């Protein structure tokens, strides 16, 4: 009951935030410098009549609020408008690219979670040389921007060794080809976040390791591996889950860079291209989708948090 | 220090030393312990026994080594500690156990009740899980049997059977300490260690928990080592008392005798600084000075710098434990015990 009310409230909050975000996304493109009509004409001079026709087709002369309302109404009906650059429906453009991006982000997320948790766990539990090595490694990982990692990975694993393709998404050649093409982009995308999650996991587990209830569990003869899994790691999960929101948002943003670096034909690359060509219906649609994805992930995390930490919905969070 | 009244317990207790032919629940012999980077040992020749089914109080101020002594019984030692001497629990030496024997000791033979139950119980797991996890994970009981035993013990400590479904944050401190006590009894131990089990509780809850511990100890026949800085509590619950100072046993004997006729100036000073309802009004007497710190090796009696009776002898020669005349069970490590004799027949 308590949980249901919590979920409903979060859903309503999400709807409100999404509405606000749509306004910002639309407004930003409206305020941005440059005129899509002039871009569309490719520098050629056009008759005032032709310009007026374009303005009319894209409703560029309507008042802002009217344009916004029309755009939002269409989106609610599943119509994201037409791309100026590609002269096709935005939804058509996205339907071929969104799966690629989701697969890439999903692969990176798996790498981040598996490797980040494993390294953090090992560092906290083993200590000593293992911990020092992990600290040094994660420092490098955190200090390496995704585009630098992309260049290094392309240089060594793709060009020098030829183990992986250096660009493209392999879409159309089946799932195996896609996984193979997206391995390097996923690693480049994951690297920084592996370092970050490992650090968060490590410090949360170290904090638990020195806590009284862990000492008590040991004093009760609980085998050490159970002490680690049931008390240390279990109690560190809250911090890990909170970080997961940050991880997903970072993945969604960095995928623009990585897709561009590896020429992966995904939504991120499309966003980058469309921004430079002022293809505003595409930019708006992708921005809104990224915001919606990010908020959905946060909603899921919010709903999972009370499961991981029962003190949250019960409203009895301890003060010490 | 709280204001619990000093009064003798009104329930009969087994004779000191416990039943014949059973090994003592706890037998510590000449325990010496050093922590890294310290000049003097934190424990310096501690001798302490708890007979089967006997209740013993270990009293002293912070830093006297009482908590360390009780933790040694479960070998919960800080890293880098070196120990000498022996610690036998139900006949087995704790200090030489391997990992498996140690786990057996901690699940089946001895259990500790900690000071702050809020910190001692994982806040993210249900009470039922906490109660049964040790016996389940060590395969001592099936989950069903463990659950049944947990139910019985919860009833014994005065809690209802819906408590296992709750989280620690939903219970009061007193209830949690009852849970802690029930958890300690899960493996049917020979020895219970209670390390200041009432310090984190309010006064009325303290009295309930102490009474409960006394009842359960009698009902389950476990030995109890009760570690406290509270003399009133020690007098109320224990058969025998050990008073600790600077890592040594300053005085020991039957509770009634030690409190009525203290033979060590430190015990006397502690008694004088304990507030009580029946004490005459006026200022409490504090003990001047500080306990010796661990960085210097003291010579002679460690209490001498704070002692009103100290003489030349006290600063040069360390006193050995000597029994009182006519009462061999009551010993004190003081050169001048005889000058402290309280008014006889006052017990």
TrEMBL record, chain A:
Source organism, top-level taxon: Bacteria
Membrane topology term: Multi-pass membrane protein
TM helices/strands, residue ranges: 12-32, 102-122, 134-157, 177-198, 236-262, 282-305
GO cellular component, one term: plasma membrane
GO biological process, one term: transmembrane transport
Chief subcellular location: membrane
Pfam families for this protein: BPD_transp_1, BPD_transp_1_N
Record-given protein name: Putative dipeptide-transport integral membrane protein ABC transporter DppB
Organism: Embleya hyalina
Higher taxonomy: Bacteria, Bacillati, Actinomycetota, Actinomycetes, Kitasatosporales
Automatic annotation (TrEMBL), chain B:
GO cellular component: plasma membrane
Keyword Chaperone: no
Annotated region described as Disordered, given as residue ranges: 1-22, 318-347
Annotated keywords: ATP-binding, Cell membrane, Membrane, Nucleotide-binding, Transport
Pfam hit, one: ABC_tran
PROSITE patterns: ABC_TRANSPORTER_1, ABC_TRANSPORTER_2
Domain ABC transporter: 26-271
Single GO MF descriptor: ATP hydrolysis activity
Topology of this chain in the membrane: Peripheral membrane protein
InterPro entries linked to this entry: AAA+_ATPase (IPR003593), ABC_Ni/Peptide_Import (IPR050388), ABC_transporter-like_ATP-bd (IPR003439), ABC_transporter-like_CS (IPR017871), Oligopep_ABC_C (IPR013563), P-loop_NTPase (IPR027417)
GO biological process, one term: peptide transport
Main location: membrane
Cell location: Cell membrane
SMART domains per record: AAA
Family recorded in the similarity comment: Belongs to the ABC transporter superfamily.
Protein name: ABC transporter ATP-binding protein
Organism: Embleya hyalina
